[in-house]
Amino acid sequence: MSMSMSIQHPLLLVSPHLDDAVFSCGNLIAACPGSVVVTLFAGVPRHGTPAPQWDRRAGFASAREAVEARREEDRAALSLLNAEPVWLDFLDHQYGNSPTAGQVAARLETLLANYRSCAVVVPCGLYHSDHLLAHRACASLWAQYAEDGPPWLFYEDAFYRRSSGALHALLLRWHMLGLKATPVDLAISEQMPRKARACNAYGSQISLFDSATLGDLSAPERYWRWEKTPSGAAPRRAGLSAETPAGLV
């Protein structure tokens, strides 16, 4: 059974990469002008870092060139949705060593303190190491900030939400951790034309997608809200152990 919700706050939305927020949540961002999108893995690689295969396919000669171009695409896309980008300097896993979930959580905690009036929207972490890391960091902060403040929602990651069994397995893990996850109904579908224009701003990415992947961009966005069940233990801020939501991955 789902719950209906009307978001009355601007959003603080966490995006693993420079496109995930718009691809996964473009309708919601468009419906909440003044929102802030924090991209975790938006760091610019050092000069001389070779372009991995995906970047070479997009026509980039180096990793640095790719990220700088995608930052500009992100800026353009979010401007179409009246949202503001914030780029953290953690590197995409394909460009270098990944941070720990604790390091990411610490940076996010500083931002949360600055945007206390914002509803918070974070990834479910259905697949991909950067998405899983982003989810772990966000989940470790959920209990501290969501109980008495604006709502927190978990969004289904675009493209990965199509993977067979991925969502079912995730919901089962949440249940086993003592969390009640309820789907949230939001009246945002009328924003689809604006989302489509914003998605098209990521030209270096869109040009590489097959028809099935492109089709997912127009699929309904889906969000979940967490509650602790009566028998569920409160998640801990630190430790990121298997007994907490931060250990979902």
At a glance:
This protein has 249 residues and is α/β, with parallel strands linked by helices. It has helices at 20-31, 53-57, 63-80, 101-114, 129-146, 166-176, 192-200, 203-206, 211-216; strands spanning 3-4, 11-15, 36-39, 84-87, 119-123, 152-155, 179-185, 223-228.
Number of individual domains: 1
Please, what is the oligomeric state? single chain
Instruction: Determine Rg (CA atoms, Å).
Output: 17 Å
SS-based class = alpha/beta
Number of helices: 9
Look at the structure and give the mean pLDDT.
88
The helix content is 25-40%
Number of strands: 8
Query: How big a fraction of the residues is strand?
Result: 5-15%
Q: Superfamily at the CATH H level?
A: LmbE-like
In terms of per-residue confidence, which ranges show pLDDT below 50 for 5 or more consecutive residues? Answer: 233-249
Organism: Cupriavidus malaysiensis
Protein name: PIG-L family deacetylase
InterPro entries: GlcNAc_PI_deacetylase-related (IPR003737), LmbE-like_dom_sf (IPR024078)
